[in-house]
Automatic annotation (TrEMBL):
Its main location: Golgi. Keywords: Disulfide bond, Glycoprotein, Glycosyltransferase, Golgi apparatus, Manganese, Membrane, Metal-binding, Signal-anchor, Transferase, Transmembrane, Transmembrane helix. The gene is 20217043. This is Alpha-1,6-mannosyl-glycoprotein 2-beta-N-acetylglucosaminyltransferase. One of its GO terms (biological process) is oligosaccharide biosynthetic process. The keyword Membrane applies. It comes from Helobdella robusta (Californian leech). The keyword Disulfide bond applies. Signal peptide: none annotated. Substrate binds at Q1, V2, H3, N4, R5, D32, Q107, T108, K109, H110, H111.
Length: 331
């Protein structure tokens, strides 16, 4: 999923270029912003088949109307009384905290859900494909054996964890290590804050998620991952159960994301650190087999539903999101 950070995109492509067996993958770039610079970077990919898809309701295309910022919309922090007196368009649909929608924050969840519907249900090329889809973002960085690892994890899932329906290649460990755990996975309930980086799943899991798509789209949370977490606990019968690499194969290099304020935004430094870490642990890459190291207990009872973050009270957002599930729409 690509927005507009070309420097990050170059890094993720460079990491893919170095990855073994990448020529066997189909690389799909899903965009919500068009620029010649981004397009040129994508066109430079010469190591595997490439496809580009474009989220059709981007802020770039709808800059003065929904789902972008309509000048007639209510200001985010307007009180109910103020909204009534302004008679703004969405005066009746603030979120659970009393705030009105902000287009730049709603776009990511729309794009994410549109992308899933599109790649699983509306592309000719994936129609008969039953294998894994790996979802990465423009500010991720992959380790060269990630395809090998995914194959091992999938094999382990078939033999030892048939109810694992999600795989995650990334971790948020501040000090990742490889020694002693390089070929180990943990199995646990999927949690948005821990397991949203380098997620891989197949069409069967998508069908389960999509059955709960209405709940996902109505969830008053502008984050796709928290919405998915909520839906996993409250709607998906088998819940999402994740098999997660203990030694990461996907890293996050983005310090300048949606919420970053005044952070150090030099991805090259972060990439240097990751490359150094991987080089120092080179002997632990390409393990021959994978084992389940444990089933860590959840910090809290996983039945507890997370607190919703709001930002998704507007019925227009809920309806647009749900419309992506209609057959052959928005292709």
């Amino acid at each position: 999923q690509v927005h507009n950070r070309s420097e990050y995109l170059q890094h993720v492509i460079s990491s893919l270029r170095k990855s073994r067996d990448i020529s066997t993958a189909l690389l799909i770039f899903s965009h919500d912003h068009y620029s010649d610079e981004i397009n040129d970077i994508v066109l430079s990919v010469d190591f595997c088949p490439v496809m580009q898809i474009y989220y059709p309701y981007s802020q770039q295309l709808y800059s003065k109307e929904f789902p972008g910022e309509d000048p007639r919309d209510c200001p985010r922090d307007a009180s109910k009384e103020k909204a009534e007196s302004l008679n703004c368009l969405n005066k009746d649909t603030p979120d659970k905290y009393g705030h009105y929608r902000e287009a730049k924050y709603t776009q990511t969840k729309h794009h994410w859900f549109w992308k899933l519907n599109h790649v699983f249900d509306h592309l000719e090329v994936t129609k008969l494909y039953e294998g894994l889809y790996l979802f990465i973002e423009e500010d991720h960085y992959l380790v060269e054996d990630f395809i090998h690892i995914l194959r091992l994890m999938d094999r382990l899932r078939s033999s030892s964890c048939t109810d694992c329906n999600m795989m995650t290649l990334g971790t948020y460990d501040k000090k990742p290590k490889y020694e002693g755990i390089h070929n180990q996975v943990d199995v646990m309930s999927w949690m948005s804050s821990k397991h949203n980086m380098g997620m891989a799943f197949n069409k069967k899991t998508w069908v389960e998620i999509k059955k709960c798509g209405t709940a996902f789209c109505q969830m008053d949370d502008y984050n796709w991952d928290w919405s998915l977490h909520f839906v996993s606990l409250s709607c998906i019968p088998s819940k999402l159960k994740v098999m997660m690499m203990k030694a990461p194969r996907v890293f996050h290099i983005g310090e300048c994301g949606l919420h970053a304020k005044g952070k150090n935004c030099n991805p090259s430094e972060r990439v240097q650190f990751i490359e150094g870490l991987v080089a120092a642990n080179e002997k632990y890459l390409y393990p021959r087999y994978m084992t389940i190291s444990g089933y860590p207990a959840q910090v809290k009872k996983v039945s507890l539903l997370p607190k919703l973050n709001g930002g998704w009270g507007d019925t227009r957002d809920q309806h647009l999101c749900a419309s992506f599930m209609e057959a052959h729409s928005h292709s």
